[in-house]
Amino acid sequence: MTLIERVILLFMGFAGGVGVAAGIYAFITMLQIVQRLSSRTGTANQINFYEDCVMVGGILGNLISIFEWQIHFSIVFLAIYGLFSGIFVGCLAIALAEVIDVFPAVSRRISLKLGIPFLVVAIALGKGIGTFYQLVINRA
Questions:
Q1: Beta-carbon count within 10 A of 27 CB
Q2: What distance in Å separates the CA atoms of residue 58 and residue 76, rounded to the nearest whole number?
Q3: With contact defined as beta carbons under 8 Å apart, do 95 and 32 qualify?
Q4: Which of 46, 88, 95, 110 could form a disulfide with 31 if both were Cys (CB 3.0 to 4.6 A apart)?
Q5: Would you call 102 exposed, middle or buried from its count of C-beta atoms within 10 A (0-12, 13-18, 19+)?
Q6: What is the pLDDT of residues 29-82, one digit of tens each?
C-alpha cells in the first residue's frame, strides 16, 4: 500500500469516526439524558462535570476500541463498570422510548390506566435478562 493510499484511508476512517461520534452525541443531546438525570437527582449544578464525563468516556472507549489495549482490572471493578454501563444503556433506552412517546401510545392502545411503572420495570428487566443471557449464558 502506497503512502497516498494510507493517507486517504486514514482520512476516510477519521472522517467516518467523527461523523458517527457526532451522530451519537447529537442523539444523546437530543434525548437530554444528562439534563434529565441531573435534574431528577438534584445535582443540576454539576451538569458540566457530567457532560465532561460523557465526553471523556466516549473518547477513552474509542481509543480502547481502536488500539485494542489490554487493560486488566479486578473482577470488582469490572462488576462496577458493568453496573454503570447497564444503567447508562437503560437510561438511554428509556429516554428514547419517552421521546418517541411509546408508553402513552401503548397505554392508550391496550387501555392501561394503572401499572405503567410496572410496565417500565418489566421492560428494563427484560432488557437486563436478555443481555445477561446473550453475554453470559449464550457464550458457553
A1: 14
A2: 22
A3: yes
A4: 95
A5: middle
A6: 777 878 877 887 888 888 888 888 888 888 887 787 778 877 788 889 888 988
